[in-house]
Amino acid sequence: MRFQLLGPLSITDGGETVVLHPSKPANLLAALLLNAGSIVSVDYLQRMVWGDEQPATARAALQTCVLRLRRLFAKHEVVDTPIEAVPGGYRITAGGRSLDLVEFRERVRRTQEPGLSAESAMGALQGALALWQTGVLANVRSEAIHRDEVPRLLEERLRVVERLCDLRLELGLCGPALVDLWSVTRAHPDHGRFREQLIEALYRTGRQTEALAEYRGFKAYLADGLGVGPSAALQRLELSILRGEDLGPASEPPALAGLPAAAPAAPAPVPDPPGLPPVPWFTGRAEAVATLRRRLTAAVDGPGTPVAELVCGGPGIGKTALAQQVAHLVRDDFPGGRTLVPMAAPDGSPRAAAEVVDEIAARLGTPDAGSGPRALLILDDVVDAAQARDVLAAVPGHGVLLTSRLGLAGLVATHGVRVHRLGPLAGAEARELLTAVLGAERVADEPSGAEELAAVCGHHPLALVIAAARLGTRPALRLGDCARWLAEEPLGRLSLTGHPRMSVVELFDAALDRLDPDLAAAYVALSALDAPGWHAADGAAVLGLPAAECEALLERLADAGLVEDGPPGPYHPHPLLRLHARLVAARAGEDEAAAGAGTSGGAGAPSGVGAFSRAGAAGAAGQAGQPGRTGPPSQSGPPGPSGQPGQGSRVGHAPQSGPAGRSAQSGPTGFANSPSQPSRSTQSNRTSQPRQKV
Length: 694
Hints:
This protein is an alpha/beta fold. Helix content is 48%, strand content 8%.
């Protein structure tokens, strides 16, 4: 068992991660782990648990917290890190294998060993930084810990980032250094050393104008905000840039200065390989996890081409989470490390294979397993088979996990890639996911509400995580009440404010934008069909195409992960995707009406399949109109803890009229077949983003 502090406070055994709920025992555990190996006084612990104003019974309550923690340890079979009562306080002993903070510090400490090369030190620092997650101790509700301890932790991380950037500059790796420096200088605008490194990296890559602009912007920031000027080192750097001087080799990083150089004849120590942390809340997919682990580890000693496994499925179905979790579980079988490389640019276009290979080489030292230990690569979000072929050819000998919304059948034929297609979670898996996020007691207290919530989300992993995250912030809210509130507007309400990636509508919009316009238009038009599954003959009637051409379109949609199954049976869209397609159709109808386009579709409309794009979308909009609603959906939150709807919510109202005037009956997933508009906030967020017109 292993504790994690460099993110949400959690316990993991490698296969399952338990994120602790906010509580006084969680505060106590965090305080002990932050000082692992040392005796922690009772006064300090009381201040970390209750703050500066402590109750009169704090000492007795502290003993109760210790007892509850020991019971928690027994429940999760934590035996290597016991809590000891010692004179003056308590102590918990943890090493690098049982606490990520200790492992982080050990990795950093190894970079200061005599004779260590800059390349090895850089690899060790990268491995140390890979242990960090977002939201350090976010589930620990102790003001004292976040005031006194978390800033100290974050400062340790910043010092390591600074050293890593120094090493990259020293080795001439200015491009990778710029990736980190752009983000840290914006997150920490007062940090002069980061700004100096950024300006130096820009100048060394031939971007003199940008380097000077960055210097002058920082100079103005210091003058306006603090009334001081840049450091002497920055001023000297500016003068060198103005003169166009050659900066020469980068100076040795200050943190490594004075260390003896590595002996020329001695082999450089192997750096710690890059790693991937386990996935928070990962549950289910037991068969896929077991199969992938068996196949990846069984072929570790085999020569030849990469062992490639493909995880495919629709948007938000959990492909990357599965791949990352499996990579964490097989970490001991891949001494070269595990690394995840995005295969798609932010706009969804494929990255060049050469760019991907360069990134892999920068992380592993070499893309070829023959020149180093075997690694496991996750090629995430592959856009097309040709892109993947080129990368696979450049990484012989490594294990490879590919994720893609596409089936990539060509790779199955040419490279022996084995496919694992993911669908919605099973009922038991959906319950496990809710239990992991909300806790066993809350789910066990309302089993029917948990089933109803899973049904409203269509057992879709991302939708379930979003719904559970909403419930996690409202501990008094009943699961059933939340499920009924979500069922009224599933698309609009399955999103988290301020997190664009945590939005079902945004995810599905991005998936539709990747499709060929005619294929996207066909998909939207097909959503007008009321049947739970689509046969080629039924779709042909809607699209005005021969059945054979319609079947070819449905096959392409299945390959893109937007429908499942297929011949000889029907094609099935996920209920949330069906609602989204109808929403897009409604948008298209509104755009047509606003533009006054009641004619044939305008000049330049494409022929063939494209000819039904406007007509099909408009027809779908007509059949999927908004049921019984004259204005936009309410912007209220979910119902209150008493079970009564919140202001403006519609929980408990009579069923609304569905398509063609029929009452909207809940399908097998528990929500009506009528479409749903997203909330105003979701719609307004989309106005500034480009969207392909369907």
